[in-house]
Design brief:
Blueprint lengths: L4 H8 L10 E2 L5 H7 L15 E3 L6 H10 L2 E3 L2 H4 L2 H5 L5 E4 L3 E3 L4 E2 L2 E2 L2 E2 L6 H10 L4 E5 L12 E2 L16 E4 L2 E4 L5 H10 L3 H15 L3
Parallel strand pairs: 1-2, 2-3, 4-9, 5-10, 9-11
Antiparallel strand pairs: 5-6, 7-8, 11-12
Length: about 220
């Protein structure tokens, strides 16, 4: 629930939920909305009951005032917020990250876009691994299926020489506006099939053709 448009989109999609808990490296103003609407109570987290745990506040004065006055936010260091044992002790911990692109084997690049380096790995891999470590938990990576101008698919045949931020062995669920692809435990061919099914329709044919050429499948 930190930086970017993804947290706002997630928060907006949680309107029918109740009594959720939050454990996050960073939180933004959307947390205040979720608490005030009774969506986040932190009552059933498995640990740190009644409190949102985070390492940073990234928002307006409203968020900072809420953190001081409510007593419902507990600030902790990365040694705690990104600790695998801590995350494994949370109940049904669903982690949500974004990405820049993913190849058809499930490797995710979350660092370089258009030849520009946008950011370091940080706690990205910690949270991708932390979700499945929790009993009943999952790891979700969500992003739009294409670039804003629609010209380029963000599901690609290969990452080429671009960095692998998350290896395919760690990737669990990929989500775009066209659906969800559950990749854990799938063969490489099944992974490609599922990822192509959630790619932007304008790019699916090219992805299928490139994948078949690469795999030598007619």
């Amino acid at each position: 629930l930190g930086v970017g448009t993804l947290p706002a989109a997630v928060a907006g999609a949680l309107s029918s939920h109740r009594e959720l808990g939050v454990h996050s490296g960073v939180v933004s103003d959307v947390l205040v909305d979720l608490v005030e609407r009774g969506i986040v109570t932190n009552a059933h987290k498995g640990r740190d009951a009644g409190r949102t745990v985070t390492g940073g506040l990234f928002g307006t004065q409203r968020l900072r005032d809420f953190a001081v006055s409510s007593g419902l936010i507990e600030m902790r260091s990365a040694d705690y917020t990104h600790n695998m044992t801590v995350m494994a002790g949370l109940s049904q911990f669903y982690t949500i990250n974004s990405g820049i692109e993913i190849d058809l084997s499930g490797q995710v690049n979350a660092e370089v876009a258009g030849g520009r380096y946008l950011g370091a790995v940080g706690g990205y891999v910690d949270y991708i691994r932390g979700g499945p470590a929790s009993i009943g938990g999952r790891s979700i990576i969500a992003f739009p299926s294409a670039t804003p101008d629609g010209k380029h698919s963000r599901i690609v045949t290969s990452l080429g020489n671009r960095p692998v931020t998350a290896p395919r062995s760690d990737v669990d669920v990929i989500v775009t506006e066209h659906g969800a692809a559950h990749l854990r435990g799938c063969s490489l061919q099944e992974r490609a099939k599922r990822l192509m099914s959630i790619a932007h329709p304008d790019h699916r044919e090219a992805l299928e053709r490139a994948f078949h050429d690469q795999a030598g499948v007619s």
